Amino acid sequence: MQINTFGKIIDIEEALSFFQDDMVLMFGGFGGIGNPPTLIKGILEKGVKNLTLIGNDTGFPDVGIGQLVTAKRVRKMVTTHIGSNPNAGKQMTDGTLDIEFSPQGTFIERVRAGGVGLGGVLVDIGIDSVIDINKQRVTVLGKEYLVETPLTADVSIVYAKKADPFGNLVFDKSARNSNPYVAMAGNITIVEVDEIVPLGALEPEEIIVPGAFVHYIVQSEGVDWKWVWEK
User: Fold this and answer.
1) Tens of pLDDT along 64-118?
2) pTM flag (> 0.90)
3) How far is CA 176 from CA 100, 151, 183, 208, in A?
4) DSSP string, 46-93
5) Domain limits of the chain?
6) Per CATH, which fold does 12-119+151-230 belong to?
7) What confidence tens digit (pLDDT) does each residue in 11-40 have?
8) Are 156 and 26 in contact (CB under 8 A)?
9) Where does this protein have coiled-coil stretches (predicted)?
10) Euclidean distance between CA atoms 201 and 182, whole angstroms
């Protein structure tokens, strides 16, 4: 039996107490891969609404974080693209979903900046484009940059392959994607994991996120991807 040495391992019911209407929620994942399925399912079932979501994309209509968009639980998104979820596009066009686009590289740097406490990052991507709206410009060594503000959230939700009781995390291949950066940028970080292993079972070299960034750990119920894609 796994010993909850650091008090970080909680059940899904306790985890859901951290999700409330009107909150800012950051999530890991890319096109649904790396989205935490059990936590997202719980948020849907709890009925949380008016969310501001921060994440790479809006997923697919019935996959991952896209389910929250489809259910119209989101009022604003800070994201890199919405092309894989037509429901997001329709809601944006209808004016019911506010979208703040950020180029993918810039986006992840903004998340990283939030996680490590930087005041922002300077980029030359997007000058004089739709990205350059009401943004401060600075000149450094004769070159002009946009000031991109850091991204943080009330709660970050992360999906990992393994965690020990301290919250050290190992990821599964491409499901690693943005999850390590997202884990750093939440005031509270909740990680959903496929397997909780004893302290000392993880090799130091395979740990991607140190447990210092993780507040709580939830055992994943998994997801039937075959059913999702057939749907």
Assistant:
1) 999 999 999 999 999 999 999 999 999 999 999 999 999 999 999 999 999 999 9
2) yes
3) 24, 19, 11, 9
4) HT--SEEEESSB--BTTBTTHHHHHTT-EEEEEESB-TT-HHHHHHHH
5) 12-119+151-230
6) Glutaconate Coenzyme A-transferase (3.40.1080)
7) 999 999 999 999 999 999 999 999 999 999
8) yes
9) none
10) 24
